[in-house]
Amino acid sequence: MKIREKFTLFSFLLVIISIAGVSILFYFSEKQLLTNGIRDKEAEMAQTFVQISEDALRVNDELPVLNYVATIRKTKGVAYALLVDKNNTVLAHTDGKLIGKKGTEACAADGITELSLPVMAGREQKGTARIGFSKSVMDEIITASLNRTRNRIAYIALIILIAGLAGAAVLSRRMTRPIKKLSEGAISIGEGNLDYRINIDSKDEIGDLSREFNLMARKLQELDQLKKDFVSSVSHELRSPLTAIEGYVDYFVDIPPEKVDKEKWQKALNIMKKNTSRLNNFIGDILDMAKIEAAQFEIDRTPSNLYPVAEEITALFEKLAVEKKVAIKLDIPRDLPEVMIDADKIKQVFTNLVSNALKFTPEGGTISIQAKCQAPSPLSSPSRGEDGPAGPGEGGFLEISISDTGIGIPVSALEYIFDRFRRAPEITDRIKKTKGTGLGLSITKGIIELHGGKIWAESELNKGSVFHFTLERS
Amino acid sequence: MSKKIFIVDDDRGILEMLRDNLEKARFEVLAEADSRVASERISSEIPGAVILDLVMPEPDGFEVLKSLKSNDKTKNIPVIILTTHDTKENRDRCAELGAAKYMLKPVNIKKLIEAIK
Fold it and tell me: Could B106 and A239 be called an inter-chain contact, meaning their C-beta atoms sit closer than 8 Å?
Protein backbone atom coordinates (compact mmCIF):
# COMPACT_ATOMS: atom_id res chain seq x y z
CA MET A 1 0.00 0.00 0.00
CA LYS A 2 1.36 3.42 -0.89
CA ILE A 3 2.12 6.01 1.78
CA ARG A 4 -0.43 8.28 0.26
CA GLU A 5 -3.16 5.67 0.56
CA LYS A 6 -2.02 4.73 4.05
CA PHE A 7 -2.05 8.32 5.12
CA THR A 8 -5.49 8.95 3.61
CA LEU A 9 -6.89 5.83 5.22
CA PHE A 10 -5.36 6.71 8.55
CA SER A 11 -6.74 10.25 8.47
CA PHE A 12 -10.09 8.91 7.38
CA LEU A 13 -10.22 6.45 10.27
CA LEU A 14 -9.19 9.20 12.64
CA VAL A 15 -12.03 11.39 11.40
CA ILE A 16 -14.54 8.54 11.73
CA ILE A 17 -13.42 7.69 15.26
CA SER A 18 -13.56 11.32 16.33
CA ILE A 19 -17.00 11.85 14.84
CA ALA A 20 -18.31 8.60 16.38
CA GLY A 21 -16.93 9.56 19.80
CA VAL A 22 -18.37 13.05 19.72
CA SER A 23 -21.70 11.78 18.37
CA ILE A 24 -22.09 9.12 21.05
CA LEU A 25 -21.25 11.61 23.76
CA PHE A 26 -23.66 14.12 22.33
CA TYR A 27 -26.39 11.51 21.92
CA PHE A 28 -26.27 10.37 25.55
CA SER A 29 -26.03 13.84 27.00
CA GLU A 30 -28.98 14.87 24.83
CA LYS A 31 -30.93 11.87 26.09
CA GLN A 32 -30.17 12.79 29.69
CA LEU A 33 -31.18 16.37 29.02
CA LEU A 34 -34.47 15.33 27.47
CA THR A 35 -35.30 12.94 30.33
CA ASN A 36 -34.49 15.61 32.89
CA GLY A 37 -36.63 18.12 31.01
CA ILE A 38 -39.62 15.78 31.05
CA ARG A 39 -39.15 15.07 34.79
CA ASP A 40 -39.12 18.81 35.45
CA LYS A 41 -42.29 19.28 33.42
CA GLU A 42 -44.00 16.44 35.28
CA ALA A 43 -43.01 17.88 38.62
CA GLU A 44 -44.21 21.30 37.57
CA MET A 45 -47.52 19.86 36.40
CA ALA A 46 -47.99 18.07 39.73
CA GLN A 47 -47.13 21.23 41.61
CA THR A 48 -49.72 23.19 39.66
CA PHE A 49 -52.27 20.44 40.33
CA VAL A 50 -51.58 20.66 44.06
CA GLN A 51 -51.80 24.45 43.99
CA ILE A 52 -55.15 24.43 42.20
CA SER A 53 -56.42 21.67 44.51
CA GLU A 54 -55.41 23.57 47.65
CA ASP A 55 -57.13 26.72 46.37
CA ALA A 56 -60.23 24.74 45.46
CA LEU A 57 -60.50 22.93 48.79
CA ARG A 58 -60.07 26.18 50.71
CA VAL A 59 -63.00 27.82 48.99
CA ASN A 60 -64.89 24.53 48.60
CA ASP A 61 -65.22 24.96 44.87
CA GLU A 62 -64.11 21.92 42.91
CA LEU A 63 -64.72 23.41 39.49
CA PRO A 64 -61.18 24.71 38.80
CA VAL A 65 -59.81 21.29 39.73
CA LEU A 66 -62.21 19.59 37.38
CA ASN A 67 -61.24 22.02 34.63
CA TYR A 68 -57.57 21.45 35.24
CA VAL A 69 -57.97 17.69 35.24
CA ALA A 70 -59.87 17.96 31.98
CA THR A 71 -56.98 19.99 30.55
CA ILE A 72 -54.21 17.64 31.58
CA ARG A 73 -56.15 14.65 30.38
CA LYS A 74 -55.38 15.87 26.85
CA THR A 75 -51.69 16.31 27.65
CA LYS A 76 -49.55 13.69 26.05
CA GLY A 77 -48.08 11.16 28.43
CA VAL A 78 -50.54 11.74 31.22
CA ALA A 79 -52.21 8.40 31.99
CA TYR A 80 -54.44 9.70 34.72
CA ALA A 81 -54.78 12.43 37.36
CA LEU A 82 -56.92 12.43 40.46
CA LEU A 83 -57.55 14.25 43.67
CA VAL A 84 -58.69 12.40 46.75
CA ASP A 85 -59.71 13.82 50.13
CA LYS A 86 -58.24 12.56 53.34
CA ASN A 87 -60.71 9.67 53.35
CA ASN A 88 -59.43 8.62 49.94
CA THR A 89 -62.68 9.59 48.23
CA VAL A 90 -62.07 10.74 44.68
CA LEU A 91 -62.96 14.41 44.26
CA ALA A 92 -61.72 14.82 40.72
CA HIS A 93 -60.45 12.32 38.14
CA THR A 94 -59.49 12.25 34.51
CA ASP A 95 -61.96 9.43 34.27
CA GLY A 96 -65.15 11.22 35.36
CA LYS A 97 -66.94 7.96 36.23
CA LEU A 98 -64.64 7.35 39.17
CA ILE A 99 -65.60 10.58 41.06
CA GLY A 100 -67.03 9.79 44.46
CA LYS A 101 -65.54 6.34 44.57
CA LYS A 102 -62.62 5.16 46.61
CA GLY A 103 -59.21 6.02 45.09
CA THR A 104 -57.24 3.17 43.63
CA GLU A 105 -53.90 2.12 45.02
CA ALA A 106 -50.89 4.12 43.86
CA CYS A 107 -48.84 2.82 40.91
CA ALA A 108 -51.69 0.65 39.98
CA ALA A 109 -50.52 -0.32 36.54
CA ASP A 110 -47.18 -1.31 35.05
CA GLY A 111 -45.42 1.24 32.91
CA ILE A 112 -46.81 4.12 34.91
CA THR A 113 -44.79 6.56 36.99
CA GLU A 114 -46.95 8.21 39.58
CA LEU A 115 -46.31 11.51 41.30
CA SER A 116 -48.26 11.77 44.54
CA LEU A 117 -48.29 15.04 46.52
CA PRO A 118 -50.15 16.05 49.68
CA VAL A 119 -52.76 18.81 49.44
CA MET A 120 -52.52 20.97 52.53
CA ALA A 121 -54.63 23.62 54.28
CA GLY A 122 -52.32 25.28 56.71
CA ARG A 123 -50.67 22.39 58.53
CA GLU A 124 -53.39 19.95 57.92
CA GLN A 125 -53.38 17.52 55.05
CA LYS A 126 -56.71 17.78 53.27
CA GLY A 127 -56.09 15.25 50.56
CA THR A 128 -53.68 13.92 47.95
CA ALA A 129 -53.10 14.92 44.33
CA ARG A 130 -51.86 12.11 42.11
CA ILE A 131 -50.74 12.13 38.47
CA GLY A 132 -49.73 9.01 36.60
CA PHE A 133 -47.45 9.37 33.64
CA SER A 134 -47.21 6.68 31.03
CA LYS A 135 -43.60 5.57 30.67
CA SER A 136 -43.99 4.26 27.15
CA VAL A 137 -45.47 7.50 25.92
CA MET A 138 -42.65 9.43 27.57
CA ASP A 139 -40.11 7.12 25.95
CA GLU A 140 -41.79 7.65 22.64
CA ILE A 141 -41.45 11.39 23.02
CA ILE A 142 -37.81 11.05 24.00
CA THR A 143 -37.13 8.60 21.19
CA ALA A 144 -38.76 10.84 18.61
CA SER A 145 -36.74 13.78 19.79
CA LEU A 146 -33.56 11.73 19.92
CA ASN A 147 -34.20 10.48 16.41
CA ARG A 148 -34.35 14.00 15.18
CA THR A 149 -31.10 14.78 17.01
CA ARG A 150 -29.50 11.63 15.64
CA ASN A 151 -30.43 12.56 12.10
CA ARG A 152 -28.98 15.98 12.58
CA ILE A 153 -25.74 14.47 13.97
CA ALA A 154 -25.52 12.05 11.09
CA TYR A 155 -25.98 14.87 8.61
CA ILE A 156 -23.26 16.98 10.22
CA ALA A 157 -21.01 13.95 10.59
CA LEU A 158 -21.38 13.19 6.92
CA ILE A 159 -20.34 16.71 5.99
CA ILE A 160 -17.34 16.57 8.33
CA LEU A 161 -16.46 13.15 7.00
CA ILE A 162 -16.47 14.30 3.39
CA ALA A 163 -14.50 17.41 4.29
CA GLY A 164 -12.07 15.29 6.33
CA LEU A 165 -11.61 12.80 3.55
CA ALA A 166 -11.01 15.53 1.00
CA GLY A 167 -8.62 17.24 3.41
CA ALA A 168 -6.74 14.01 4.04
CA ALA A 169 -6.49 13.32 0.33
CA VAL A 170 -5.18 16.80 -0.42
CA LEU A 171 -2.78 16.77 2.53
CA SER A 172 -1.44 13.33 1.75
CA ARG A 173 -0.95 14.27 -1.87
CA ARG A 174 0.94 17.36 -0.77
CA MET A 175 3.03 15.29 1.61
CA THR A 176 3.77 12.50 -0.81
CA ARG A 177 4.46 14.63 -3.88
CA PRO A 178 7.97 15.60 -2.64
CA ILE A 179 8.57 11.94 -1.77
CA LYS A 180 7.60 11.02 -5.29
CA LYS A 181 9.96 13.69 -6.59
CA LEU A 182 12.72 12.25 -4.41
CA SER A 183 12.13 8.78 -5.70
CA GLU A 184 12.10 10.00 -9.30
CA GLY A 185 15.40 11.72 -8.55
CA ALA A 186 16.87 8.55 -7.07
CA ILE A 187 15.85 6.60 -10.15
CA SER A 188 17.30 9.21 -12.46
CA ILE A 189 20.59 9.34 -10.57
CA GLY A 190 20.65 5.56 -10.44
CA GLU A 191 20.42 5.57 -14.24
CA GLY A 192 23.55 7.71 -14.33
CA ASN A 193 22.15 11.23 -14.67
CA LEU A 194 24.47 12.51 -11.97
CA ASP A 195 23.68 16.14 -12.66
CA TYR A 196 20.03 15.60 -11.66
CA ARG A 197 18.98 17.86 -8.79
CA ILE A 198 15.74 17.73 -6.82
CA ASN A 199 13.90 20.99 -6.70
CA ILE A 200 12.28 21.12 -3.26
CA ASP A 201 12.95 24.10 -1.05
CA SER A 202 10.52 23.50 1.81
CA LYS A 203 11.81 24.02 5.33
CA ASP A 204 10.53 20.68 6.69
CA GLU A 205 12.17 17.26 6.97
CA ILE A 206 11.44 16.46 3.35
CA GLY A 207 13.22 19.66 2.39
CA ASP A 208 16.20 18.63 4.53
CA LEU A 209 16.16 15.20 2.95
CA SER A 210 16.16 16.57 -0.57
CA ARG A 211 19.01 18.94 0.27
CA GLU A 212 20.97 15.98 1.65
CA PHE A 213 20.03 14.06 -1.45
CA ASN A 214 21.32 16.78 -3.76
CA LEU A 215 24.52 16.91 -1.75
CA MET A 216 24.89 13.17 -2.17
CA ALA A 217 24.32 13.48 -5.90
CA ARG A 218 26.95 16.20 -6.09
CA LYS A 219 29.43 14.01 -4.21
CA LEU A 220 28.67 11.13 -6.56
CA GLN A 221 29.28 13.44 -9.46
CA GLU A 222 32.61 14.51 -7.98
CA LEU A 223 33.51 10.88 -7.43
CA ASP A 224 32.58 10.10 -10.99
CA GLN A 225 34.68 13.02 -12.21
CA LEU A 226 37.56 11.80 -10.05
CA LYS A 227 37.25 8.38 -11.64
CA LYS A 228 37.34 9.89 -15.12
CA ASP A 229 40.28 12.09 -14.12
CA PHE A 230 42.04 9.01 -12.80
CA VAL A 231 41.65 7.15 -16.08
CA SER A 232 42.71 10.14 -18.11
CA SER A 233 45.69 10.88 -15.81
CA VAL A 234 46.90 7.30 -15.92
CA SER A 235 46.50 7.10 -19.66
CA HIS A 236 48.29 10.41 -20.15
CA GLU A 237 51.15 9.50 -17.84
CA LEU A 238 51.64 6.10 -19.47
CA ARG A 239 51.11 7.08 -23.08
CA SER A 240 53.10 10.32 -23.25
CA PRO A 241 56.53 8.91 -22.38
CA LEU A 242 55.78 5.81 -24.42
CA THR A 243 55.00 7.99 -27.43
CA ALA A 244 58.41 9.65 -27.31
CA ILE A 245 60.25 6.37 -26.77
CA GLU A 246 58.38 4.43 -29.43
CA GLY A 247 58.64 7.29 -31.87
CA TYR A 248 62.43 7.34 -31.58
CA VAL A 249 62.65 3.58 -31.85
CA ASP A 250 60.68 3.87 -35.10
CA TYR A 251 62.98 6.63 -36.23
CA PHE A 252 66.16 4.59 -35.88
CA VAL A 253 64.83 1.16 -36.70
CA ASP A 254 65.32 1.39 -40.47
CA ILE A 255 68.59 3.38 -40.47
CA PRO A 256 71.75 1.27 -40.81
CA PRO A 257 73.93 1.72 -37.67
CA GLU A 258 76.81 3.29 -39.58
CA LYS A 259 74.54 5.93 -41.02
CA VAL A 260 73.12 7.05 -37.67
CA ASP A 261 73.77 10.71 -36.97
CA LYS A 262 75.75 10.86 -33.68
CA GLU A 263 74.17 14.07 -32.45
CA LYS A 264 70.64 12.93 -33.18
CA TRP A 265 71.38 9.60 -31.53
CA GLN A 266 72.57 11.36 -28.36
CA LYS A 267 69.54 13.66 -28.27
CA ALA A 268 67.19 10.73 -28.80
CA LEU A 269 68.86 8.73 -26.04
CA ASN A 270 68.50 11.62 -23.60
CA ILE A 271 64.84 12.01 -24.41
CA MET A 272 64.26 8.26 -24.15
CA LYS A 273 66.09 8.10 -20.84
CA LYS A 274 64.08 10.97 -19.43
CA ASN A 275 60.88 9.32 -20.54
CA THR A 276 61.77 5.86 -19.28
CA SER A 277 62.48 7.30 -15.85
CA ARG A 278 59.25 9.25 -16.04
CA LEU A 279 57.43 6.01 -16.81
CA ASN A 280 59.35 4.25 -14.11
CA ASN A 281 58.50 6.88 -11.49
CA PHE A 282 54.88 6.86 -12.43
CA ILE A 283 54.60 3.09 -12.28
CA GLY A 284 56.37 3.19 -8.90
CA ASP A 285 53.87 5.78 -7.67
CA ILE A 286 50.90 3.82 -8.94
CA LEU A 287 52.15 0.65 -7.27
CA ASP A 288 52.87 2.50 -4.01
CA MET A 289 49.38 3.96 -4.07
CA ALA A 290 47.84 0.58 -4.79
CA LYS A 291 49.83 -1.00 -1.94
CA ILE A 292 48.85 1.76 0.46
CA GLU A 293 45.20 1.34 -0.47
CA ALA A 294 45.40 -2.42 -0.14
CA ALA A 295 47.21 -2.01 3.22
CA GLN A 296 50.20 -3.93 1.80
CA PHE A 297 52.68 -1.10 1.91
CA GLU A 298 55.37 -2.37 4.24
CA ILE A 299 57.49 -0.13 6.38
CA ASP A 300 60.37 -1.18 8.55
CA ARG A 301 60.85 1.31 11.35
CA THR A 302 64.07 1.79 13.26
CA PRO A 303 65.11 4.57 15.63
CA SER A 304 66.82 7.10 13.40
CA ASN A 305 68.15 10.61 13.45
CA LEU A 306 66.16 12.80 11.11
CA TYR A 307 68.95 15.21 10.23
CA PRO A 308 70.92 13.04 7.76
CA VAL A 309 67.68 12.01 6.05
CA ALA A 310 66.65 15.60 5.45
CA GLU A 311 70.19 16.57 4.53
CA GLU A 312 70.42 13.91 1.86
CA ILE A 313 67.23 15.12 0.19
CA THR A 314 68.26 18.77 0.39
CA ALA A 315 71.54 17.87 -1.31
CA LEU A 316 69.62 16.00 -3.99
CA PHE A 317 67.65 19.11 -4.91
CA GLU A 318 70.51 21.57 -4.60
CA LYS A 319 71.40 21.65 -8.28
CA LEU A 320 67.79 22.14 -9.37
CA ALA A 321 67.29 24.82 -6.71
CA VAL A 322 70.32 26.75 -7.91
CA GLU A 323 69.02 26.54 -11.48
CA LYS A 324 65.65 27.87 -10.36
CA LYS A 325 67.32 30.48 -8.11
CA VAL A 326 65.46 29.22 -5.06
CA ALA A 327 67.20 28.83 -1.69
CA ILE A 328 66.66 25.66 0.36
CA LYS A 329 67.33 26.17 4.07
CA LEU A 330 67.72 23.19 6.35
CA ASP A 331 66.85 24.38 9.86
CA ILE A 332 66.74 21.06 11.70
CA PRO A 333 68.80 20.90 14.91
CA ARG A 334 71.30 18.04 14.76
CA ASP A 335 70.58 16.94 18.32
CA LEU A 336 66.88 16.25 17.90
CA PRO A 337 65.59 13.10 19.60
CA GLU A 338 65.48 10.04 17.35
CA VAL A 339 62.29 9.07 15.55
CA MET A 340 60.86 5.67 14.65
CA ILE A 341 61.00 5.71 10.88
CA ASP A 342 61.58 3.73 7.76
CA ALA A 343 64.29 6.08 6.47
CA ASP A 344 63.75 5.20 2.78
CA LYS A 345 60.06 5.97 3.00
CA ILE A 346 60.61 9.20 4.90
CA LYS A 347 63.12 10.22 2.22
CA GLN A 348 60.29 9.69 -0.25
CA VAL A 349 58.15 12.03 1.85
CA PHE A 350 60.85 14.71 1.91
CA THR A 351 61.44 14.27 -1.82
CA ASN A 352 57.76 14.74 -2.62
CA LEU A 353 57.30 17.76 -0.39
CA VAL A 354 60.54 19.51 -1.38
CA SER A 355 59.99 18.85 -5.08
CA ASN A 356 56.46 20.25 -4.79
CA ALA A 357 57.74 23.31 -2.98
CA LEU A 358 60.39 23.81 -5.66
CA LYS A 359 57.84 23.37 -8.40
CA PHE A 360 55.58 26.11 -7.10
CA THR A 361 58.14 28.61 -5.81
CA PRO A 362 59.22 31.35 -8.22
CA GLU A 363 62.75 32.73 -8.62
CA GLY A 364 64.24 34.33 -5.55
CA GLY A 365 62.03 32.31 -3.21
CA THR A 366 63.00 30.28 -0.18
CA ILE A 367 62.13 26.79 0.95
CA SER A 368 62.81 26.05 4.57
CA ILE A 369 62.74 22.78 6.45
CA GLN A 370 62.20 22.96 10.20
CA ALA A 371 61.57 20.49 12.99
CA LYS A 372 60.60 20.76 16.63
CA CYS A 373 59.45 18.54 19.49
CA GLN A 374 55.74 18.38 20.12
CA ALA A 375 54.73 18.31 23.76
CA PRO A 376 53.79 14.70 24.63
CA SER A 377 50.06 14.48 24.84
CA PRO A 378 48.16 11.53 26.25
CA LEU A 379 45.47 12.12 23.64
CA SER A 380 47.62 11.87 20.54
CA SER A 381 48.71 8.33 21.11
CA PRO A 382 50.43 6.58 18.21
CA SER A 383 47.56 4.18 17.47
CA ARG A 384 49.34 1.80 15.07
CA GLY A 385 51.13 -0.46 17.52
CA GLU A 386 51.73 -3.28 15.05
CA ASP A 387 54.12 -1.19 12.94
CA GLY A 388 57.00 -1.65 15.31
CA PRO A 389 58.01 -1.91 18.92
CA ALA A 390 56.76 0.99 20.98
CA GLY A 391 59.51 3.34 22.05
CA PRO A 392 60.71 3.03 25.61
CA GLY A 393 61.26 6.76 25.98
CA GLU A 394 59.01 9.61 26.82
CA GLY A 395 56.92 9.21 23.64
CA GLY A 396 55.60 12.25 21.87
CA PHE A 397 56.16 13.45 18.34
CA LEU A 398 58.48 15.56 16.25
CA GLU A 399 56.75 18.06 14.01
CA ILE A 400 58.47 18.73 10.70
CA SER A 401 57.46 21.72 8.60
CA ILE A 402 58.42 22.43 5.02
CA SER A 403 57.54 25.96 4.03
CA ASP A 404 57.89 27.78 0.75
CA THR A 405 57.35 31.26 -0.63
CA GLY A 406 55.43 29.90 -3.61
CA ILE A 407 52.12 30.71 -5.19
CA GLY A 408 50.09 29.17 -2.38
CA ILE A 409 47.05 26.90 -2.38
CA PRO A 410 43.48 28.23 -2.36
CA VAL A 411 41.60 27.40 0.85
CA SER A 412 39.02 25.52 -1.21
CA ALA A 413 41.74 23.17 -2.47
CA LEU A 414 43.46 22.56 0.88
CA GLU A 415 40.98 19.85 1.78
CA TYR A 416 41.57 17.69 -1.27
CA ILE A 417 45.23 18.17 -2.18
CA PHE A 418 45.97 14.87 -0.44
CA ASP A 419 43.43 13.05 -2.63
CA ARG A 420 45.00 11.08 -5.43
CA PHE A 421 45.20 12.70 -8.85
CA ARG A 422 43.76 15.91 -7.51
CA ARG A 423 45.78 18.95 -8.33
CA ALA A 424 44.33 22.32 -7.59
CA PRO A 425 43.17 23.57 -11.01
CA GLU A 426 43.76 27.16 -9.96
CA ILE A 427 47.42 26.34 -9.50
CA THR A 428 48.02 24.33 -12.65
CA ASP A 429 46.47 27.12 -14.67
CA ARG A 430 48.78 29.72 -13.31
CA ILE A 431 52.04 27.86 -13.48
CA LYS A 432 52.72 27.02 -17.05
CA LYS A 433 54.51 23.78 -16.65
CA THR A 434 53.74 21.66 -13.66
CA LYS A 435 54.60 18.11 -14.41
CA GLY A 436 53.29 15.68 -11.91
CA THR A 437 51.13 12.68 -11.53
CA GLY A 438 48.91 13.99 -8.77
CA LEU A 439 49.85 10.97 -6.70
CA GLY A 440 52.75 12.42 -4.71
CA LEU A 441 50.78 13.97 -1.86
CA SER A 442 48.46 11.03 -1.40
CA ILE A 443 51.41 8.64 -1.20
CA THR A 444 53.10 11.04 1.22
CA LYS A 445 50.00 11.08 3.38
CA GLY A 446 49.80 7.29 3.26
CA ILE A 447 53.41 6.91 4.38
CA ILE A 448 53.04 9.41 7.25
CA GLU A 449 49.86 7.72 8.44
CA LEU A 450 51.55 4.32 8.34
CA HIS A 451 54.16 5.84 10.65
CA GLY A 452 51.37 6.84 13.03
CA GLY A 453 51.81 10.51 12.20
CA LYS A 454 49.62 13.20 10.77
CA ILE A 455 50.04 15.52 7.82
CA TRP A 456 48.35 18.81 7.06
CA ALA A 457 48.90 21.99 5.12
CA GLU A 458 48.45 25.70 5.60
CA SER A 459 48.63 28.24 2.86
CA GLU A 460 48.15 31.81 1.85
CA LEU A 461 47.70 32.68 -1.82
CA ASN A 462 50.79 34.32 -3.34
CA LYS A 463 52.60 34.15 0.02
CA GLY A 464 53.40 30.46 0.23
CA SER A 465 52.44 27.14 1.73
CA VAL A 466 53.56 25.15 4.76
CA PHE A 467 53.27 21.37 4.95
CA HIS A 468 53.51 19.91 8.45
CA PHE A 469 53.85 16.29 9.43
CA THR A 470 54.54 14.48 12.67
CA LEU A 471 56.75 11.49 13.38
CA GLU A 472 56.73 9.39 16.50
CA ARG A 473 59.77 9.65 18.76
CA SER A 474 61.58 6.46 19.66
CA MET B 1 50.21 20.80 -50.81
CA SER B 2 52.84 22.58 -48.76
CA LYS B 3 55.28 20.23 -47.06
CA LYS B 4 55.34 22.54 -44.05
CA ILE B 5 54.02 20.90 -40.86
CA PHE B 6 53.43 22.76 -37.62
CA ILE B 7 53.49 20.77 -34.34
CA VAL B 8 52.02 22.06 -31.06
CA ASP B 9 52.80 19.94 -28.01
CA ASP B 10 53.92 20.96 -24.52
CA ASP B 11 55.85 17.69 -24.10
CA ARG B 12 59.27 18.54 -25.52
CA GLY B 13 60.28 14.89 -25.87
CA ILE B 14 57.32 14.17 -28.09
CA LEU B 15 57.84 17.42 -29.94
CA GLU B 16 61.44 16.54 -30.81
CA MET B 17 60.55 12.97 -31.70
CA LEU B 18 57.84 14.16 -34.12
CA ARG B 19 60.14 16.77 -35.58
CA ASP B 20 62.91 14.22 -36.26
CA ASN B 21 60.54 11.68 -37.75
CA LEU B 22 58.76 14.15 -40.00
CA GLU B 23 62.03 15.71 -41.15
CA LYS B 24 63.23 12.21 -41.96
CA ALA B 25 60.10 11.90 -44.13
CA ARG B 26 61.19 15.15 -45.84
CA PHE B 27 58.70 17.50 -44.33
CA GLU B 28 59.58 20.98 -43.25
CA VAL B 29 58.81 21.03 -39.55
CA LEU B 30 57.94 23.95 -37.30
CA ALA B 31 57.28 23.26 -33.64
CA GLU B 32 55.91 25.17 -30.69
CA ALA B 33 55.70 23.98 -27.09
CA ASP B 34 54.00 27.11 -25.78
CA SER B 35 50.32 26.94 -26.68
CA ARG B 36 49.88 30.62 -25.91
CA VAL B 37 51.78 31.69 -29.03
CA ALA B 38 50.90 28.72 -31.23
CA SER B 39 47.90 30.07 -33.14
CA GLU B 40 49.66 33.36 -33.81
CA ARG B 41 52.70 31.60 -35.25
CA ILE B 42 50.52 29.30 -37.33
CA SER B 43 48.66 32.22 -38.83
CA SER B 44 51.92 33.82 -39.92
CA GLU B 45 53.53 30.58 -41.15
CA ILE B 46 50.45 29.07 -42.87
CA PRO B 47 51.67 25.45 -42.75
CA GLY B 48 50.17 22.64 -44.85
CA ALA B 49 48.96 20.85 -41.72
CA VAL B 50 48.94 21.24 -37.94
CA ILE B 51 49.55 18.46 -35.41
CA LEU B 52 47.93 19.56 -32.16
CA ASP B 53 48.07 18.12 -28.63
CA LEU B 54 44.97 18.49 -26.44
CA VAL B 55 46.24 18.40 -22.86
CA MET B 56 48.29 21.54 -22.38
CA PRO B 57 48.33 24.38 -19.89
CA GLU B 58 45.97 27.21 -20.84
CA PRO B 59 45.05 27.54 -23.63
CA ASP B 60 44.52 23.84 -24.21
CA GLY B 61 44.25 22.14 -27.60
CA PHE B 62 40.52 22.78 -27.87
CA GLU B 63 41.04 26.50 -27.52
CA VAL B 64 43.92 26.55 -30.00
CA LEU B 65 41.75 24.60 -32.45
CA LYS B 66 38.89 27.02 -31.93
CA SER B 67 41.07 30.04 -32.56
CA LEU B 68 42.56 28.47 -35.70
CA LYS B 69 39.12 27.72 -37.08
CA SER B 70 37.82 31.19 -36.31
CA ASN B 71 40.66 32.87 -38.16
CA ASP B 72 40.07 33.24 -41.92
CA LYS B 73 43.77 32.76 -42.63
CA THR B 74 44.05 29.47 -40.76
CA LYS B 75 40.57 27.97 -40.93
CA ASN B 76 41.33 25.84 -43.98
CA ILE B 77 44.54 24.32 -42.60
CA PRO B 78 43.83 20.67 -41.72
CA VAL B 79 44.40 19.98 -38.01
CA ILE B 80 45.38 16.52 -36.78
CA ILE B 81 44.66 16.03 -33.08
CA LEU B 82 47.32 13.89 -31.40
CA THR B 83 46.41 13.06 -27.80
CA THR B 84 46.49 10.48 -25.03
CA HIS B 85 42.78 10.94 -24.35
CA ASP B 86 40.68 8.30 -25.96
CA THR B 87 37.15 9.44 -25.13
CA LYS B 88 34.17 9.74 -27.42
CA GLU B 89 33.41 13.07 -25.80
CA ASN B 90 36.77 14.49 -26.94
CA ARG B 91 36.54 12.95 -30.41
CA ASP B 92 33.08 14.43 -30.93
CA ARG B 93 34.13 17.80 -29.63
CA CYS B 94 37.17 17.94 -31.90
CA ALA B 95 35.15 16.85 -34.93
CA GLU B 96 32.62 19.54 -34.11
CA LEU B 97 35.36 22.14 -33.87
CA GLY B 98 36.60 21.13 -37.30
CA ALA B 99 39.59 18.84 -36.66
CA ALA B 100 40.50 16.77 -39.73
CA LYS B 101 41.64 13.71 -37.81
CA TYR B 102 41.88 12.42 -34.23
CA MET B 103 44.86 10.20 -33.47
CA LEU B 104 46.01 8.57 -30.27
CA LYS B 105 49.43 8.58 -28.63
CA PRO B 106 51.55 6.55 -28.91
CA VAL B 107 51.19 7.07 -32.63
CA ASN B 108 52.38 4.90 -35.48
CA ILE B 109 54.62 7.28 -37.42
CA LYS B 110 53.75 5.72 -40.78
CA LYS B 111 50.06 6.20 -40.13
CA LEU B 112 50.65 9.77 -39.01
CA ILE B 113 52.56 10.49 -42.24
CA GLU B 114 49.80 8.85 -44.25
CA ALA B 115 47.28 11.01 -42.48
CA ILE B 116 49.27 14.16 -43.26
CA LYS B 117 49.47 13.25 -46.94
Answer: yes
